[in-house]
Amino acid sequence: MSAKAKWLNKVKWDEHGLVPVIAQEVGSNHVLMFAWMNRDALSRTVESGEAVYWSRSRKKLWHKGEESGHIQKVHEIRLDCDEDVVLLKVEQVGDIACHTGRHSCFFQQFSGDHQKGEWTAVDPVLKDPENIYKK
Questions:
Q1: Which of 92, 80, 121 minimizes the C-alpha distance to 27?
Q2: Three-class SS state of 79
């Protein structure tokens, strides 16, 4: 077994060969986004030093920022205690991690109670998504 296979085999992949990934901003510790990786995505992330994810909707590898230019430079990779969630500590280039043009995908905040609660967008759009992605 190669050294490459050993470290990848420590991860507990789900039945689809995926592992959930949290991207956290180095320094501020803000959670920027949640995504998925397969073995190839994690291996390419380690190799390139930039986040590469697995797009479940497009069924292909997705190098974060490949269209928008908003790449994530990986500073640290951690595996949780159950070995089934990966945490990437990243530098978010361009300050936008979300396809909505916001800094973080977690921009909606819950307020109220269990009967009359609501979600409100609390973080601003930094750039119109129409102007982010290549056509």
A1: 92
A2: strand
Q: Is the pLDDT of residue 3 over 90?
A: no
Q: Which distant-in-sequence residues (6+ apart) come within 8 Å of 123 by Cβ?
A: 102, 103, 104, 107
Please state, for a pLDDT cut of 90, what percent of the chain lies above it: 87
Helices of type H across 1-135:
3-9, 39-48
Task: Give me the domains of the chain, ranges plus CATH numbers.
Answer: 3-131 (3.10.20.810)
Closest CA to 20 of 73, 88, 70, 68: 88
61 vs 41: CA distance, rounded Å: 7
- Residue 44's φ and ψ, nearest 5 degrees, are -65, -35
**What is the pLDDT, as a whole number, of residue 4?**
56
Global pTM value: 0.91
CA atoms within 13 A on the CB side of 60: 5
